[in-house]
Amino acid sequence: MRNIKCIIVFVVAVFITGCTHVKDAPTIEAFEEKMKEHHYELIDRTNEVDYATKLYRINSEEFVFTFIKGKRKVDIEGLFIDECKNVVDEVGETDDRKQEIDSGTNWSYLKLSNSTYVYYVSWINDTYIYIKAPKNSGESIIKVAKELGY
What is the DSSP string of the chain? Predict the structure, then answer.
């Protein structure tokens, strides 16, 4: 419970005060190109939600990767906060838990792992990504996200 409160306070503080580091959000086309470069099959799920200009999921049995280009930045920020809470709840309080958080004026990310999974949740402007992958292979897909600026 204490960690959830810390994450919420951190995220709210970032939104209120901001930082000086600004990132450019990847375009939909840049995302599509990067996924094609790494031979990932994209599934378009845009019609499943009303808050997205584009929603892609990578077709993989090994990991979950979601990319959203939102219609409004505020929706993406809210989605990020909600997903951070969900990830913290799912990982729970364990001795092997590792956490990494960083943010700037228009972006934030949370990387959380335990002995089984690694989670990566990030937003830049009106874009958002969510990754859940087995710990032994998760760093490779997170590297792809970082190549996009997340």
Answer: -HHHHHHHHHHHHHHHH--S---PPPPHHHHHHHHHHTTPPEEE-GGG-SSEEEEEEE--SS-EEEEEEESSHHHHHHHHHHHHHHHHHHH-S-TT-EEEEEEETTEEEEEEE-SSEEEEEEEETTEEEEEEEEHHHHHHHHHHHHHTT-
Could you tell me the pTM of the whole model?
A: 0.85
More confident of the two residues 10 and 82: 82
- Are 28 and 138 in contact by the 8 Å Cβ rule? The answer is no
The band of 95, judged by pLDDT with boundaries at 50, 70 and 90, is confident
Classified by CATH at the fold level, domain 2-147 comes out as Protein Transport Mog1p; Chain A (3.40.1000)
